[in-house]
Write a structure and sequence with these properties.
binds adenosine-5'-triphosphate; single chain; alpha/beta; binds magnesium ion; globular
Length: 514
């Protein structure tokens, strides 16, 4: 679509070099009221480019114009004063402060030198309603919210004040479809007010829904800048990775053996109704269900992160139930859990990839108590290769990696810890399509080694690709289990909705495939 209005922001020849170049010669124009989708593989440079636009990072080469005038923001607040704002991929909220305080941190309403609390609460309430957080007390500490709600607070914070360009860096990675809809409504409102939006996501279906234009970065270079209408997901993948996407996966020959984990009537309040199932050696068992159906909660009960108020878990052929009262007990019993939230996984950002990957088993990379950094490097190098962690080498700080690559380091750490039973919660969230297949191959490897894998995912195609069986949770109940060959997308979805049939008003909206 030709855009008659003059450009709001013009980038010409933007480049960034840390030790090596991560962006080169990016030229783009962004017009008022335009929504530009930006995509590319993990580490392609999307966040770096956004940070340059929003004043958090200084470019090495190139120049920017805002309304035709030179634009060189030296800090985030300088950019914000000019109406250029960004919702970052990693949340920047202060967990101990309330929602209201986080929203208005820089502009707390004052009365006689005191914070005007009633006014603050009212202002916060208005912003919260706009993003669908109306049911929540504005004085709730942000740290007590789930990651999805935290993300909405972060978004609401950036909708305050004057905004001419809003960059959203993977805003929907943690959101349910209802929250996604609310976000899209906000985006449409901003667009109608002439705000320009840069929308970064790995969910390719989403891009078409929201954007008019598409830009693709590959290895720091702009390989596409065009109207989005002519591109389907396959074409985008081709542009992102420079080759066609894989559609088939060979899981190799696997032996599914005896039960490795027996879960018996494990439940907690009205969150998880008593659930019983077996996970076998060499098996990949998926858990499907809508957001809020109790999938993550079930994993947390098995892992001891929450206390079950009934039921038991048995390891292998033991007749005595495992004594799992905390994650520490679970790990000792041979159970690992890889959650979707990098921050809670305690990635040490200033430390190297090697340290982060081997943290869980320092004993194996030390000799007589002294850390053997060669051994550590070998281990890291192996995972960097297998997971294609985009980095200089194992010595690079985890904090310097792109978001998706940090997620891979978290996965590497647990792979290295080598537990026989592995629980995964949304293992490929925030990971680009090519890298997803690397992770699937690793999961297949693990199952060939005889490990039992229990995988929660909102991406049904993903589960159907990698699982031997898929259990379906609905309204807190494990309602059905399907075996490979006996399932279809329709039967699984029907099961996912079954638990809500008697109480239709409580049914959450179906989660969109990632
Ligand atoms: N402070 C830094 N020092 C060195 N290298 C960095 C630094 N910040 C980013 N990089 C590198 O720049 C490259 C681009 O990272 P960026 O975060 O922009 O990727 P991305 O496209 O946002 O990826 P993702 O999809 O995983 O979020 C990566 O290889 C990353 O390791
Ligand atoms: Mg990023």
């Amino acid at each position: 679509m030709p855009n008659p209005s003059p450009a709001l922001l013009t980038l010409s020849g933007i480049g960034k070099t840390y030790v090596e170049p991560v962006l080169s010669d990016v030229s783009l124009e962004i017009h008022p009221g335009q929504i530009l989708a930006l995509t590319g593989e993990n580490g392609a440079g999307k966040s770096t480019l956004s940070k340059i636009v929003c004043g958090l990072v200084q470019p090495t080469t190139g120049a920017m114009l805002l309304d035709g005038q030179p634009y060189q923001p030296r800090s985030r607040s300088e950019a914000e004063q000019l109406g250029i704002r960004m919702v970052m991929q990693e949340l920047n909220l202060i967990p101990t402060l309330s929602i209201a305080e986080n929203l208005f941190l820089n502009q707390l309403p004052q009365r006689f030198g005191w914070i005007d609390k009633p006014r603050l609460a009212a202002l916060a309430q208005t912003q919260m309603t706009a993003v669908g957080l109306s049911g929540i007390d504005p004085w709730t500490p942000v740290g007590e919210l789930g990651v999805g709600h935290q993300q909405m607070v972060e978004i609401a914070r950036n909708l305050i004040g004057s905004c001419r360009l809003l960059v959203l860096d993977e805003p929907t990675a943690m959101l349910t479809s209802r929250e996604v809809e609310l976000l899209f409504a906000q985006i449409a409102r901003l667009q109608s007010e002439g705000v320009a939006i840069v929308y970064i996501s790995h969910r390719l279906e989403e891009l078409k829904q929201v954007a008019d234009r598409i830009a693709v970065l590959r290895d720091g270079k702009l390989v596409c800048d065009d109207a989005i209408a002519g591109y389907n997901s396959e074409a985008l993948v081709q542009l992102m990775v420079g080759r066609a996407a894989e559609a088939e996966l060979d899981l190799g020959h696997r032996e599914i053996g005896a039960p490795l984990l027996r879960v018996r009537k494990l439940g907690r309040g009205d969150v998880v109704a008593p659930a019983s199932f077996d996970l076998h050696t060499g098996e990949i068992l998926g858990v499907a269900g809508l957001i809020g159906s109790g999938r993550t909660e079930l994993l947390r009960l098995i892992f001891g992160a929450d206390r079950a108020d009934q039921g038991e878990v048995f390891i292998g052929d033991q007749t005595q139930a495992a004594d799992i009262r905390s994650p520490k007990h679970a790990v000792a019993a041979g159970i690992a859990m890889i959650t979707e939230d990098r921050k809670s996984q305690g990635l040490l950002l200033p430390q190297s990839i090697a340290v982060n990957a081997t943290l869980a088993r320092l004993g194996d990379v030390s000799r007589m108590g002294v850390l053997d950094s060669d051994a550590e490097t070998d281990v890291a190098q192996d995972y960097i290769r297998r997971l294609r962690i985009r980095s200089r080498d194992g010595a690079q700080a985890a904090g310097e990696l792109s978001g998706g690559n940090q997620q891979k380091v978290v996965i590497a750490r647990w792979l290295y810890r080598d537990c026989p039973i592995m629980l995964f919660d949304e293992p490929t969230r925030g990971i680009d399509i090519g890298a997803k297949f690397d992770i699937y191959k690793l999961l297949a490897d693990l199952s060939r080694q005889g490990k039992g894998l229990l995988i929660v995912s909102s991406d049904l195609r993903e589960l159907m690709l990698i699982c031997d069986r898929i259990a379906v949770m609905s309204a807190g109940k494990l309602v059905d289990t399907f075996t490979r060959g006996q399932w279809s997308q329709e039967t699984i979805l029907a099961a996912a909705f079954r638990g809500y049939l008697n109480a239709p008003s409580s049914a959450p909206v179906a989660q969109q495939a990632a």
